[in-house]
Structure to design on (423 residues):
């Protein structure tokens, strides 16, 4: 048939396959109908080497049949002159910008096609962090650059700019939101790591042949050793008591106590569900943590807090909507530490480090501490820790008791055995 608006309207999609309808008047010009009903104009031809090629001209609606036919004739004229429109289109695709590549990468990640740790799709929280780094650092500095033109010196220059704070900003985001973007070596190292992942995706898609991030040395991530002294733990206990008296939400006070006594990550406590709490087994059975499914032993002090909480819904720390978690913890934490000047600089993640430091001071092994914190198994022995035994419960109990005693300003009676460092 001749492809016109009237004849095209009579073509119905097949839910099991693509349908191709070719025009009688112009050889190679046709229409493809997808199972979902999308209709696109096509052109099929043979290039100068005799290889059959097919290109999409545009969708029905974007192009009318007459416009598509005219475009098809122009492409066929290129073929007569020795050109190859499909190859030209491929080259044009390879010339995409970094901004376009980032959009394609995020679209693939949202569909679960970008795999992270342990070969699993990236988590929503990880994607949110990626979007922030792309929006705040990669796009402003590299967004308009052609992906195929990027070189290792370009990546090194990008890294230096982030370290120097060229993308640093402090701006409002919405009615109460605020975005504070900093520079520094740590931010630069993690952002270049993400850029390397995005460009690896470009390699697998055939957009570029070599990843320009490869070979660029990133600064070492400056990991601080966070230790809370007994005096700081006592200051934290007093600050939490004052916070309760001054109207700070009970969810925030409870979350802070649980973070200090369990060593859990902030999101693990904020999103904790009652179905994951096993008080009889003295553990948390987290169905989805940063490292996947994880079992965390509970000390008696932490278990007692959980046992005394009301159960008003599925979440341990519900927000105004019982079906959604308490979301104001970061702001509430700032109110809590304001009651204790000694806690200046102590973060919620610092409580996790503090928990690990207390466990180390009590003479516990690295494998035990890793099991208490829910680290991914980095050793052969670590792979066999799938459940909480009495030894891990006792270890969690000992650490939690030591911290709880310090927060209350009393001695817990646990003997701390200082270990000599190997030379």
């Amino acid at each position: 048939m001749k492809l016109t608006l009237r004849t095209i309207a009579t073509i119905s999609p097949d839910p099991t396959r693509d349908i191709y309808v070719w025009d009688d008047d112009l050889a190679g010009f046709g229409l493809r109908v997808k199972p979902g009903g999308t209709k696109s104009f096509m052109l099929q031809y043979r290039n100068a080497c005799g290889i059959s090629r097919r290109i999409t001209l545009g969708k029905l609606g974007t192009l009318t049949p007459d416009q598509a036919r005219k475009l098809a004739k122009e492409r066929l004229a290129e073929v007569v002159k020795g050109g190859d429109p499909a190859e030209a289109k491929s080259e044009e695709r390879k010339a995409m910008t970094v901004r376009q590549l980032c959009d394609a990468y995020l679209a693939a990640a949202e569909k679960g096609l970008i795999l992270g740790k342990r070969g699993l799709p990236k988590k929503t929280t990880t994607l949110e962090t990626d979007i922030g780094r792309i929006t705040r650092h990669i796009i402003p500095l590299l967004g308009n650059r052609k992906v195929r033109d990027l070189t290792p010196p370009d990546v090194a220059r990008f890294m230096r700019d982030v370290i120097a704070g060229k993308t640093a900003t402090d701006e409002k985001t919405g009615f109460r939101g605020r975005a504070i973007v900093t520079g520094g070596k740590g931010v630069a190292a993690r952002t270049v790591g993400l850029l390397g992942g995005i460009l690896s995706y470009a390699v697998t898609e055939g957009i570029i042949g070599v990843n320009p991030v490869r070979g660029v040395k990133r600064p070492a991530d400056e990991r601080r050793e966070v230790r809370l002294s007994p005096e700081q733990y006592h200051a934290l206990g007093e600050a939490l008591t004052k916070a309760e008296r001054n109207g700070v939400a009970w969810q925030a006070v409870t979350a802070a106590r649980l973070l200090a006594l369990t060593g859990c990550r902030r999101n693990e406590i904020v999103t904790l569900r009652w179905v994951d709490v096993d008080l009889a087994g003295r553990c948390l059975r987290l169905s989805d943590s940063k490292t996947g499914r994880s079992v965390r032993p509970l000390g008696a002090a932490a278990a007692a807090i959980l046992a005394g909480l009301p159960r008003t819904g599925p979440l341990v720390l519900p927000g105004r909507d019982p079906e959604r978690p308490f979301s104001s913890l970061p702001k509430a934490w700032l109110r809590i530490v304001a009651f204790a000047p000694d806690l200046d600089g102590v973060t919620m993640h610092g409580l996790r480090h503090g928990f690990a430091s207390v466990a180390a001071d009590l003479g516990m092994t690295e494998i035990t501490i890793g099991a208490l914190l829910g680290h991914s198994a980095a050793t052969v022995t670590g792979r066999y820790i799938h459940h909480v035994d009495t030894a891990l419960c006792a270890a969690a109990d000992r650490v939690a008791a030591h911290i709880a005693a310090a927060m209350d300003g009393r001695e817990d009676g646990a003997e701390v055995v200082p270990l000599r460092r190997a030379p």
Q: What stands out?
A: The chain is about 45% helix and 10% strand.
